[in-house]
Each structure stands twice: as C-alpha cells, then as structure tokens.
C-alpha cells in the first residue's frame, strides 16, 4: 500500500536548521537566486501549459514543494507559483482555495519552517515529512509540484563504494571526479534507481494534466566525470579530510567509508529517465543561469566570495559530516576547505556545470496505468 511505501527508510541529511552562522536560512542565497531566475519559466509553465480543465474544475488547488528545507526560499517559490496561477484564474468563474504542502525529510527543521511562514499568505499550509523517493501523498491529489535543488541528493550512497572487495571501492575519496569508471557507474546506477522511484511516486500523486517543475544542478550533456564542477567541489572537501587523516585528526578508514550521496546529472539523463518512466511529457527544458553562491558565472568573469561559498557548502553538508565524524572536526574541516577553495578557485572556470529547469506534465493517456 502506498502509505507503507513512504515509510521506507532513506538516509537523511537535511540542511542546517535554526538561524545560526551556518544555518541554511542564512546561507542559501545561491539557491534563492536560482528560484528567482526560474520565475519567468514558472509563469510560462502555468500560462501556457496548465489546462483550463485542471484550473477551473477543482475547488482546492494543491501545490507541493518537495525538498523545501526551512525557508525563506520555498516561500518565494510558492509565491511565484501562486502569482502566476492567480492571473491565469481570471479565465475561470471562481478562484479556488489553495493548499500548499511543504515537504522534506522528517529531520528537517519544520518548527522554523512553520514559525516563519508568510503571515499574509492566501493559502492553507501543511507540512509533509518523508523522503520524496517514496509516496508522500494520496493518489491523484496534487495539481502542481515544485522541487528545486533537491533531486541531486540520492537516497543514499551506493553500498559498493564502501566494499573493499568491489572494483567500485572508492578509497580515500568522498566523491567521483577523480575516481575510476566503476565508481561513476555505481553513482549513475543509484541515480537511475532513485529517479525512477521519484517519477513513479509522483506519477501516482499528480492528477492527469498536472504539472511538475524540477530545478537541479548538474553537468552539461556529455561531460566526463573528471570535468564535473559539482564533483570537483566535493573532491576538494575530500582532500581536506585526507590531509586531516595524515595528521591523525580523523582515521583514514572513516574517510574511506564516506561517500557523499549527491549526483550531478545531465539534462539528457533526466530526459531519458522521464521517457523511460513514460507517465510524463517534457514540456519545457531549459538551462538557467549558473550561480556560484549568488553570483552568475559568465565568461569566466565571476570572482568567488570564498567565505560565503564555504558557509553555503557547510549549511548543506555539515549534518552529514557531523553524523560520520562527530561535531569536533567541523571547524577545522571547513577552515581547511576555505584555503583549498582559494588555492583552487580556477576550478570554477574550468569545471563544467549547469542549472536545469524542466517542466513535466502528467500524461492523460496513461492515467489508467496509475490506478
Ligand atoms: C539544497 S536544499 C534545497 C531547499 C530549497 N528547495 C531551496 O531551493 O532552497 C535540498 C533539500 O532537499 C531535501 N532532500 C534531499 N533529499 C530528500 C529526499 N529524499 N526527500 C525529501 N527531501 C530531500 C534536503 O533535506 C534539503 O532540505
């Protein structure tokens, strides 16, 4: 049964909660800039791709933001959707009520999310805990799903990366830019499994004709893994850990057993997954401007604010490192990371990365398959 599927346990490393120095709230302006850059496409999605029947025939229009974290970014994303919907609703006789589901892992700081909800909101808000790699909502209950900067997180790191007897053993590394093909194959296989589960679950939850916006960081089509900027950035963090292992601050074995469950997919890989799933049509697929921290990178001109960049990375990853190595190493690790980023800032020019915007529409013709 669907509700049982959603109980399946997945690794969960939510962004740092609260409003401290390294909190997501204070270190996610980069993700906010991506949401801002997608605003016009969200509007186009609703104006051009949302059918009048979906719009005008439901008394309650239900929106979900998956991997919402703690705000405020999710509130801006929701506001962009609602603004576009409200203008489109002029085509209908009456405006429905809106319900917005904020969804993330149960360990997410939902208290902060709820206490900072916009006061003047014109929708009913609810929180939905759980992994988006399983079912989260009843069948055919959602009209619009939004998911920004979240599906790069896998449900977990592939197990063979930690298996000494496997050709995919990822010794002394925490990601794959400098690894062999076997390691990359293991990451890819995990991604394929996860994205299929994600699409399968959403195909059941979204009404036929309903829309889903996916925004994700990844790599341009055809990029070799050694050129992947998202992975190069993570590899530098791994090299800091290996420096600490050489100094005896952490054990090398501990480094060997950590692999960050993030995969930088290409737009083509997402397209193939959607086509393989068969329940959605791809309505829009475009690149968004590439942001490092909150600066657009174009023509190799951007200068990185190293401190801000490291805080941004720390807000996203410290939960995972704390869980694996304990809290005491965090300051040393991220200080050493700042130095590494400064020394290697050329990777932001040489590495390849892309932010993708994809609009999917739940197909009408396969509706019977979902039930
Ligand atoms: C980088 S944050 C993005 C937050 C927000 N969407 C934004 O754009 O600012 C990624 C979020 O995805 C969530 N996430 C990652 N994997 C998830 C999963 N399997 N199920 C639900 N949420 C997940 C994390 O907990 C985190 O809050």
From TrEMBL:
Keywords: Magnesium, Metal-binding, Methyltransferase, Transferase. The keyword Transmembrane does not apply. Pfam families: Methyltransf_7. GO terms for molecular function: metal ion binding; methyltransferase activity. It comes from the Eukaryota. GO terms for biological process: methylation. This is S-adenosylmethionine-dependent methyltransferase.
């Amino acid at each position: 049964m669907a509700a049982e599927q959603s109980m399946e346990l997945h690794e969960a490393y939510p962004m740092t909660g609260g409003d401290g120095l390294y909190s997501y709230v204070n270190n996610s302006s980069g993700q906010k800039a991506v949401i801002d850059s997608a605003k016009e496409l969200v509007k186009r999605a609703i104006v051009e791709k949302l059918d009048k029947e979906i719009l005008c025939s439901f008394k309650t229009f239900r929106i979900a933001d998956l991997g919402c974290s703690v705000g405020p970014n999710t509130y801006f994303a929701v506001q962009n959707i609602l603004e576009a919907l409200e203008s489109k609703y002029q085509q209908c006789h009456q405006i429905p009520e809106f319900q917005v589901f904020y969804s993330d892992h149960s360990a997410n700081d939902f208290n902060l999310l709820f206490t900072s909800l916009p006061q003047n909101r014109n929708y009913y808000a609810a929180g939905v805990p759980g992994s988006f790699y399983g079912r989260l909502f009843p069948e055919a209950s959602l009209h619009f799903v939004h998911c920004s900067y979240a599906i790069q997180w896998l449900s977990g790191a592939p197990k063979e990366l930690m298996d000494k007897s496997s050709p995919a053993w990822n010794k002394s590394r925490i990601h794959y830019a400098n690894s062999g093909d076997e390691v990359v194959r293991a990451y890819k296989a995990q991604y394929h499994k996860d994205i299929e589960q994600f699409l399968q679950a959403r195909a059941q939850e979204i009404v036929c004709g309903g829309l889903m916006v996916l925004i994700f960081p990844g790599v341009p089509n055809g990029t070799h893994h050694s050129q992947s900027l998202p992975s190069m950035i993570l590899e530098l963090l791994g090299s800091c850990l290996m420096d600490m292992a050489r100094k005896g601050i952490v054990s090398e074995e501990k480094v060997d057993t950590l692999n960050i469950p993030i995969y930088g997919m290409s737009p083509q890989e997402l397209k193939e997954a959607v086509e393989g799933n068969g329940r959605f049509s791809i309505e829009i697929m475009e690149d968004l401007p590439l942001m490092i921290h909150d600066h657009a990178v174009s023509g190799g001109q951007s200068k990185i604010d190293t401190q801000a960049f490291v805080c941004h990375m720390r807000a996203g990853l410290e939960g995972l490192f704390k869980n694996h190595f304990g809290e005491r190493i965090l300051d040393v690790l991220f200080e050493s990371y700042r130095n590494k980023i400064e020394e290697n800032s050329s990777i932001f020019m040489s590495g390849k990365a892309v932010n993708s915007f994809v609009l999917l529409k739940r197909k009408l013709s396969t509706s019977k398959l979902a039930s």
